[in-house]
Amino acid sequence: MAGKTIAAERAYARADVFVAEALGISRSAAKKLLDEGHVTRGGEPVKAAHPVAAGTLFEAEVLAPREADLTPQDIPFDIVYEDEDIAVVNKPQGLTVHAGAGNYTGTLVNALLYRLHSLSSINGVVRPGIVHRIDKDTSGLLVVAKNDAAHRSLAEQIAVKTCSREYLALCEGRFAQERGRVETYIGRSPSDRKKMAVVPKEKGRYAATNWQVEKRYKEGLTLVRFSLETGRTHQIRVHCKHIGHPIVGDPVYGTKKQRFHLNGQLLHACRLTLTHPRTGERMTFEAPLPDYFLNVLHTLTEE
């Protein structure tokens, strides 16, 4: 057995759900680790049903990984900024951030292992360096931790909301106001467990998204800037559907009839602001819209 520190980048209703995701193992395997006392906090065993707050650090004793579990791969992606503590990357659409159990290739993590000389170990062997995520078909900025001290700092910033993330999306319909805010509870869809949905308070977790109109188009589409206050799974996509303005190209939460030939939603993480974990400097990074997004905008007529 080898000791690993794992950090919760968001809150979880149960510790076994968090441990399963953090270590890339099944929930039953995670529960077994917890029940046998192999997951601790401050030296005390953690129960499987115990809720987990964002930013919580656990120590987990797990089997040492095989070298072949994660293979460095030369997968193209842009590094926007890099130093000895962090790397800010611009993830392309179609690239999954990290692998699931049993599948350890073709992800951003594989690409990071090929390009970077070190990554934090806090989130286990499946997610080295990964502090936060964006969906496979969402493009844009992610910060990667290159050591455990940087990871702890970044995870804390996300938990206390001092790390800000902004997105641009092309949405269906005309927004009635110039800016607004969506507050709901998000959980698993009762009709499809693979989807997320707006659900009653007792069945979901609080989610808040701020939005502002950037441009309006005569074709009945709107370019909108979104700012996250929380980081729920598929949050912007679910909120856009909820307010009647699904994101163009979204294969899960969008309209059935697509007017453009796209490989996923037109949603881009365009701006990331954080405090450097070593220097304390406030840093802002920006990533331009990818070509496929711009190509759609160039076909539209601005109001």
Task: Kindly describe this structure.
The chain has 303 residues and is an alpha+beta fold. The protein folds into three domains: 61 residues, RNA-binding S4 domain (Structural Genomics Hypothetical 15.5 Kd Protein In mrcA-pckA Intergenic Region, Chain A, Roll); 90 residues, Pseudouridine synthase, CATH 3.30.2350.10; 103 residues, Pseudouridine synthase (2-Layer Sandwich). 17% of the residues lie in helices and 30% in strands. The chain is built from six helices and 14 strands. Strands 5, 6, 7, 8, 9, 10, 11, 12, 13 and 14 form a ten-stranded mixed beta sheet that branches. It has a four-stranded antiparallel beta sheet with strand order 1-4-2-3, with helices on one face. It is globular. 40% of the residues are buried.
Condensed summary:
The chain has 303 residues and is of the alpha+beta class. The protein has helices at residues 15-23, 27-35, 108-115, 148-159, 235-242, 291-297, and strands spanning 2-7, 39-41, 44-45, 57-62, 78-82, 86-91, 139-145, 164-172, 179-188, 196-198, 205-217, 221-228, 267-275, 282-286. The protein starts with a strand and ends in a 6-residue tail after the last helix.
